């Protein structure tokens, strides 16, 4: 079975994501929130479906503003459930709003969502899954693994022979720094 590094090059959606985002560390909390929400929405669907709907998600969720999404009420929830441009799954929409509120709490307690991630790093995947399940909604092992790989907290986003791996390593992702791999 071919891996993402084999399938993504030259693909109109997978290619740019693979080459410029996947596995690279993210500093901004709203960008981390976006990645978490996209991973949650991918559950049960293809990543291509999510990438194709990414712009619609960005509009629907106010540019992934944690503060705005955390303030959503019933009217915004209904608007999202009626938005054909996004994945209209009540559990995923409710998790997004809930998780925005959780991230606000983490920001208050740790200074930022990223600081919370950094403070808990390094953990094994099992440790991360337990932490995410205690902290967030709709975050099972696959979602947690992909979120952490895609943001540089866990290895595995790229194969060692993928040319993008060199670029990822040059950014000193947390997984590589802890292991002394950079």
UniProtKB/TrEMBL annotation:
Keywords, alphabetical: Metal-binding, Zinc
Signal peptide: none
One Pfam family named in its UniProt record: Adenine_glyco
Gene Ontology molecular-function annotations: DNA-3-methyladenine glycosylase activity; metal ion binding
One of the protein's GO biological processes: base-excision repair
Organism: Modicisalibacter muralis
InterPro entries, A to Z: Adenine_glyco, DNA-3mA_glycosylase, DNA_glycosylase
Keyword Zinc carried by entry: yes
Name the record gives this protein: DNA-3-methyladenine glycosylase I
Chain sites annotated for binding Zn(2+): 5, 18
């Amino acid at each position: 079975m071919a891996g993402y590094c084999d399938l993504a090059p030259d693909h109109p959606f997978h290619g740019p994501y693979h080459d410029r985002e996947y596995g690279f560390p993210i500093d901004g909390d709203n960008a981390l929130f976006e990645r978490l929400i996209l991973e949650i929405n991918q559950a049960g669907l293809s990543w291509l479906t999510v990438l194709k709907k990414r712009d619609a998600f960005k509009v629907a969720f106010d540019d992934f503003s944690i503060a705005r999404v955390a303030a959503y009420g019933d009217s915004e929830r209904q608007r999202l459930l009626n938005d054909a441009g996004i994945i209209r799954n009540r559990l995923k929409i409710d998790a997004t709003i809930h998780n925005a509120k959780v991230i606000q709490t983490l920001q208050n307690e740790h200074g930022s969502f990223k600081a919370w991630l950094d403070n808990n790093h390094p953990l094994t995947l099992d440790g991360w899954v337990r932490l995410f399940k205690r902290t967030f909604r709709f975050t099972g092992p696959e979602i947690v693994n992909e979120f952490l790989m895609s943001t540089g907290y866990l290895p595995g986003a790229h194969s060692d022979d993928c040319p993008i791996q060199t670029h990822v390593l040059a950014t000193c992702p947390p997984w590589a720094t802890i292991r002394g791999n950079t």
